[in-house]
Automatic annotation (TrEMBL):
<feature type="transmembrane region" description="Helical">
    <location>
        <begin position="178"/>
        <end position="197"/>
    </location>
</feature>
<keyword id="KW-1133">Transmembrane helix</keyword>
<feature type="transmembrane region" description="Helical">
    <location>
        <begin position="78"/>
        <end position="96"/>
    </location>
</feature>
<keyword id="KW-0067">ATP-binding</keyword>
<protein>
    <submittedName>
        <fullName>ATP-binding cassette subfamily B protein</fullName>
    </submittedName>
</protein>
<dbReference type="InterPro" id="IPR003439">
    <property type="entry name" value="ABC_transporter-like_ATP-bd"/>
</dbReference>
<dbReference type="InterPro" id="IPR011527">
    <property type="entry name" value="ABC1_TM_dom"/>
</dbReference>
<keyword id="KW-0472">Membrane</keyword>
<dbReference type="Pfam" id="PF00664">
    <property type="entry name" value="ABC_membrane"/>
</dbReference>
<dbReference type="GO" id="GO:0005524">
    <property type="term" value="F:ATP binding"/>
</dbReference>
<feature type="transmembrane region" description="Helical">
    <location>
        <begin position="253"/>
        <end position="286"/>
    </location>
</feature>
<dbReference type="InterPro" id="IPR003593">
    <property type="entry name" value="AAA+_ATPase"/>
</dbReference>
<keyword id="KW-0547">Nucleotide-binding</keyword>
<keyword id="KW-0813">Transport</keyword>
<dbReference type="GO" id="GO:0140359">
    <property type="term" value="F:ABC-type transporter activity"/>
</dbReference>
<feature type="transmembrane region" description="Helical">
    <location>
        <begin position="298"/>
        <end position="319"/>
    </location>
</feature>
<dbReference type="InterPro" id="IPR036640">
    <property type="entry name" value="ABC1_TM_sf"/>
</dbReference>
């Protein structure tokens, strides 16, 4: 028998894609903003050049002073020149920061948009393989690492390259041997920075992990405060928080140790070079090979070289980190939905669509038993009840109709066409879906109802609420339909939330309504009212209600009983009472106590 299943290996560690594949992800942004980048990099190079000129001006002044050939006016002119250059450096620094860092933010935004629109296309199995934390990491840490590499990474790389090459040329120009000697400690500085930056990254990742553990712990403790109090868990929770807090402090101290090492090592390398200049360069001045000005300029150049040498190690690390993150983003973007990749052609919606399930077998994973087993079912206009024990496959059936999971070819037909030949969005656009857990957004009641049709009028919203039997209760809220609900608003009861979600689905006015146990928290009297509203509103259309409430099921046109993924019986309420032992036992459990109570009262 042909079945479908989802190969769900879990989020494996991604293999490294080719460099050109990774760079292809960045190319569109680099191309689009090439002018911005070119101007930014030019400003950066001009800053470098201007900085290199300052020691030469100072050399001129010192030589003049040493030979007593310089006038006060000359000195003033040199000072003004230095200030003018410093001002130009400050202005141009602002320009390159604005342009290049701005570019990295634009690149980050475009990658984020790409990731987000890709996620919107993915199917349910994808979201089961990737946890929300996983996906959040892509849209925060990984994007930040790429942004860093393409912003400060580009700046530091260009800066370090130009500054080190130019500074060394200027130094060589003064004295070749002295330059080579003074540069001796520099490769060690680059090497140390590289090693320390690597460790720093590692420790910093630990800090971030500890921080997210701590925040997640505090978040879940705050939202489950009632449970904690009910189980008198306060002490235990405090001890847990204390433990996490101590780990967090420890990992922060580990970061501080590395950060504390970097600067002294740089100073040490600079001072070693300085020592060499003092010792060797000083002798060259005494012997008249170098002028006093050359000597001072040489010291300034060496000081300027410390930063590029540190930057080389630092850049190597952030580029490596950026590539690792880019690799993860690449793997996310190449992951494919198992649903057919067919774009919605804009075909007009079907007026009275129906579903035909033909010998459909479905498993969530190859090693799991089938969640649906050889299902044959016609779902056309009318109100259909789906019932069965927990885990019998009711929700799975609804999810497959809503095209959240892939199905094998020819097993599910929609309006006589195989769903695999249709755009998933086309099929979904016919279905209003009410799930088991209603989700409300932090917005007004009206906006929550109008989620699927933001353009709906006030009258339409009220009418949908009335059909879902929630209108009166909404009017009793402090601001009626304008009341804020959700996380930061008024808290609604489970039944109210479910009816709000139902009103949202009703407002969409689609030809098929699927309610997956979405009325379980609604009391029996209100359930009747809701059902009457549905009957009237959906006359001639298709409604599928998953429920285990016999009273609700008895009102439907036809009931399908599932057990272990199979249809064990289908028919009207009376028919099933006679034909299905499962249905009969559900009826007995739910209706007998009432009958017994009535009998006892009589
Ligand atoms: N995402 C999933 N991954 C793996 N197995 C799943 C998944 N969802 C459901 N199942 C399994 O598939 C079977 C059918 O589950 P389903 O949720 O469709 O049952 P149900 O009849 O709706 O149950 P309930 O009445 O408790 O909601 C169960 O064995 C369940 O454990």
């Amino acid at each position: 028998m042909e079945t479908t299943s989802l190969d769900r290996p879990g989020p494996a560690r991604p293999t490294r894609a080719g460099l050109s594949q990774l760079l292809n992800l960045l190319r569109p942004s680099f191309t689009r903003h090439r002018l911005r980048l070119a101007v930014g990099l030019t400003a950066l190079l001009v800053v470098d050049f201007l900085q290199l000129i300052i020691p030469r001006i100072i050399k001129h002044g010192v030589d003049g002073l040493a030979a007593l050939t310089i006038s006060r006016d000359d000195l003033l002119r040199l000072a003004v020149l230095v200030i003018a250059i410093a001002l130009a450096v400050a202005g141009l620094r602002f320009v390159w920061r604005y342009l290049i860092i701005g570019f990295s933010r634009l690149l980050e935004e475009s990658l984020r948009n790409r990731i987000f629109s890709h996620l919107l296309k993915m199917d349910a199995p994808f979201f089961e393989r990737h946890t929300p934390g996983d996906l959040m990491a892509h849209s925060s840490n990984d994007l930040a690492a790429v942004q860093m590499a393409c912003g400060m990474g580009v700046v530091a790389a260009a800066d370090a390259l130009v500054m080190s090459v130019a500074t060394i040329i200027f130094m060589l120009h003064i004295h070749v041997e002295l330059t080579l000697l003074a540069l001796l400690p520099m490769p060690f500085l680059a090497w140390f920075t590289r090693i320390l930056a690597g460790r720093l990254h590692h420790r910093f990742t630990t800090v971030q992990e500890q921080f997210s553990l701590l925040t997640e712990f505090s978040r879940s403790a705050v939202i489950s405060i009632r449970l904690i109090k009910a189980y008198t868990m306060e002490r235990f929770q405090t001890a847990q928080l204390d433990r996490l807090g101590r780990q967090y402090v420890k990992s922060n101290i580990a970061v501080a140790v590395i950060q504390g090492l970097i600067s002294p090592i740089a100073t040490l390398a600079g001072n070693l070079g300085m020592l060499i200049i003092l010792f060797v360069g000083g002798r060259l001045v005494i012997t008249g090979v170098l002028t006093m000005g050359d000597f001072v300029a040489f010291i300034s150049y060496l000081a300027m070289l410390v930063w590029p040498m540190m930057a080389i190690g630092w850049v190597a690390n952030i580029v490596q980190r950026g590539l690792t993150s880019l690799n993860r983003i690449h793997h996310l973007l190449i992951s494919q939905s198992a649903l057919p990749d067919i774009a919605d052609s804009g075909e007009p919606p079907l007026v009275r669509p129906s579903f035909s399930l033909r010998n459909l077998t479905f498993r969530y994973a190859p090693d799991l038993p089938p969640a649906l087993d050889a299902i044959d079912l016609e779902i056309g206009p009318g109100i259909h009840g789906i019932t069965g024990r927990t885990g019998s496959g009711k929700s799975t059936l609804c999810r497959l109709l809503a095209r959240l999971y892939p199905v094998p070819d020819g097993r599910v037909l929609f309006g006589d066409r195989d769903v695999n030949t249709l755009a998933p969005a086309f099929v979904r656009s016919h279905i209003a879906y009410v799930g088991q857990e209603p989700i409300l957004f932090s917005d007004t009641v009206a906006a929550n109802i109008a989620l699927g049709r933001p353009e709906a009028t006030e009258e339409e919203i009220v009418e949908a609420a009335r059909s879902a039997a929630i209108d009166d209760e909404i009017r009793d809220l402090p601001d009626g339909y304008a009341t804020l609900v959700g996380e930061r608003g008024v808290k609604l009861s489970g039944g109210q939330r479910q009816r709000l979600a139902l009103a949202r689905a009703l407002l969409c006015n689609r030809p098929v309504l699927v309610i997956d146990d979405g009325l379980s928290a609604v009391d029996v009297a209100t359930e009747h009212e809701v059902f009457a509203g549905l009957r009237q509103r959906f006359a001639g259309r298709t409604v599928l209600i998953v429920s285990n409430r016999i009273k609700m099921l008895s009102l439907t046109d036809r009931i399908v009983v599932l057990d272990e993924g199979r249809i064990v019986c289908a028919g009207g309420h009376d028919e099933l009472l006679a034909a299905s032992t499962l249905y009969r036992s559900m009826y007995d459990k739910q209706m007998r106590p009432q009958a017994d109570e009535k009998g006892a009262a009589g």
